[in-house]
UniProtKB/TrEMBL annotation, chain A:
The lineage of its organism: Bacteria, Pseudomonadati, Bacteroidota, Flavobacteriia, Flavobacteriales. One of its GO terms (cellular component) is plasma membrane. GO terms for molecular function: ATP binding; ATP hydrolysis activity; phosphate transmembrane transporter activity. GO terms for biological process: phosphate ion transmembrane transport. This is Phosphate ABC transporter ATP-binding protein. NCBIfam families: 3a0107s01c2. Keywords: ATP-binding, Cell membrane, Membrane, Nucleotide-binding, Phosphate transport, Translocase, Transport. Coiled coil: none annotated. Part of the ABC transporter complex PstSACB involved in phosphate import. Responsible for energy coupling to the transport system. Pfam families: ABC_tran.
From TrEMBL, chain B:
Homodimer. The keyword Chaperone does not apply. Keywords: Cytoplasm, Phosphate transport, Transport. It is found in: Cytoplasm. This is Phosphate-specific transport system accessory protein PhoU. It comes from the Bacteria.
């Protein structure tokens, strides 16, 4: 289907003997925000990292099943993992700017990809910073160190850095959990704006954040996908009792 | 151990039960007044009305605080949304009961008129629908909700018939115009109480099934399911 960006079929993940994801099947729609929720250790972040093969870096990990991004199984032997990660950007819980200038942080990715033209780089830097809603705050000090920015600004800078390499999909792992309410609302507003151009998957422990920002919500528990549906339905009339118990705080 | 949130929800539930019981008492007094039975002293009725008003405000305050502090979702959200509406309906039922008690005082030859136009039956049904309404909130029993819908329809038909008969009588007998007019108003109030009870049943249905059934017919719902 055209409007489905990612098809996940029977995906299981093992950390050694331990099965951390159990036969996950889901469809992630294009140009929408999908939130992954669930208690700690439920597998939501592990699942998120499967989408751009970040789990490849852990030696004991074994994955079965399919993760089809635009119809291509990203775990196929012939697939270049670098290309995957270009296409699928990621924003982490803790902002991690490079110890370089604001400008260099954004230009880094395009430069590595071979872009040298200064005018084009300038344009990418400006567009990315504008898209990440931080341009007005940093336009006069692009040469300053990124480490001098506030936590909220650093996180938006990291989003801008992700956008600079023109991904299709953006994965966000608790992107606002370390931020104050004002920075959080800026990130959430940004997520709303970005979904017009990107498919966004966001892991969050903050249930209200999932409700506010996402179009679809998937609830994970003990490595299983318990329920996925429209966010409005999940938060008003979930089908599964486990989902209801979790979102109403009656879990365990 | 119950969480702070669960304690708040229980508190809300118990205040709704209280307002429901008081509204039921007020309806009972109104029905007695219609049927010319001795009713509690006016003081008691007024005191109850005052209590209902206070509980209505208290329910709004509890709901406001839960919305602001707990961000309820799913069944909790539906319960709190319904609680606010149910409280409002109960308060209206209390007001209508008071109006009935006042109106019946100015009906002359009430006993004869009540008998002539078979109003006792409809009054008893209104009393019963109110009891069923409180019952359905407590038990969340869908069969009781169904019964309330059927009773409401029957009450409405009986009120219409009685009003029609009273108007016809007033056309030919000018002596009953004043009492007849008051009686018509009493019947309209009884009908409204039945409507408010039915609205409460609709909110209970929403609490259980997450489906808003306002302005729908219960028969249609059953065929849909």
């Amino acid at each position: 289907m055209k409007d489905i960006k990612i098809h996940v079929n029977d995906l299981s993940l093992y950390y050694g003997e331990k099965k951390a994801l159990k036969e996950i099947s889901m469809q992630i729609p294009a140009n929408k925000v999908t939130a992954l929720i669930g208690p700690s250790g439920c597998g939501k972040s592990t699942f998120l990292r499967c989408i751009n093969r970040m789990n490849d870096l852990i030696p004991s990990v074994r994955i079965t099943g399919e993760m089809l991004v635009e119809g291509i199984d990203i775990y196929d032997k012939n697939v270049d993992v670098v290309n995957i990660r270009k296409k699928i950007g990621m924003v982490f819980q803790k902002s991690n700017p490079f110890p370089k200038s604001i400008y260099e942080n954004i230009a880094y990715g395009p430069k590595i990809n071979g872009l040298k033209d200064k005018t084009q780089l300038d344009e990418i830097v400006e567009v990315s910073l504008r898209q990440a809603a931080i341009w007005d705050e940093v336009k006069d000090r692009l040469g300053d160190s990124a480490l001098g920015l506030s936590g909220g600004q650093q996180q938006r800078l990291c989003i801008a850095r992700t956008l600079a390499v023109s991904p299709d999909i953006i994965l966000m792992d608790e992107p606002a959990s370390a931020l104050d309410p004002i920075s959080t609302s800026k990130i959430e507003e940004l997520v709303h704006q970005l979904k017009e151009q990107y498919t966004i998957i966001i892991v969050t422990h903050n249930m209200q954040q999932a409700a506010r920002t996402s179009d679809h919500t998937a609830f994970f528990y003990m490595g299983e996908l318990i329920e996925m549906g429209k966010t409005n339905t999940i938060f008003t009339k979930p089908l599964q009792k486990q989902t209801e118990d979790y979102i109403t705080g009656r879990f365990g | 151990m119950a969480t702070y949130f669960e304690i708040e929800l229980d508190k809300l539930k118990s205040v709704i039960q209280k307002i429901g019981v008081l509204a039921e008492i007020q309806v009972g007094e109104a029905i007695k007044a219609v049927l010319s039975e001795p009713i509690s002293e006016g003081k008691e009725v007024k005191k109850n009305e005052h209590k209902i008003d206070k509980l209505d405000i208290k329910i709004d305050e509890i709901c406001q605080s839960i919305f602001a502090l707990q961000q309820p979702v799913a069944s909790d959200l539906r319960f709190i949304m319904s609680a606010m509406q149910i409280s409002n309906e109960m308060e209206r039922i209390g007001d209508l009961s008071m109006s009935i008690i006042k109106k019946t005082k100015s009906i002359k030859d009430k006993h004869d008129l009540i008998t002539t136009f078979s109003i006792a039956d409809v009054a008893r049904q209104v009393e019963l629908i109110m009891t069923k309404t409180n019952e359905c909130f407590l038990t969340r029993d869908e069969n009781t909700i169904g019964e309330i819908f059927v009773m409401n329809k029957s009450i409405k038909n009986k009120c219409d018939d009685a009003i029609h008969a009273i108007i016809n009588e007033m056309k030919v007998n000018s002596k009953v115009v004043v009492s007849g007019t008051n009686l018509v108003m009493v019947l309209k109030h009884l009908e409204r109480i039945s409507e408010h009870s039915t609205n409460i049943a609709e909110y209970v249905y929403f609490m259980i099934n997450a489906k808003i059934i306002k302005h729908e017919k219960f028969e249609d719902l059953n065929t849909e399911n």
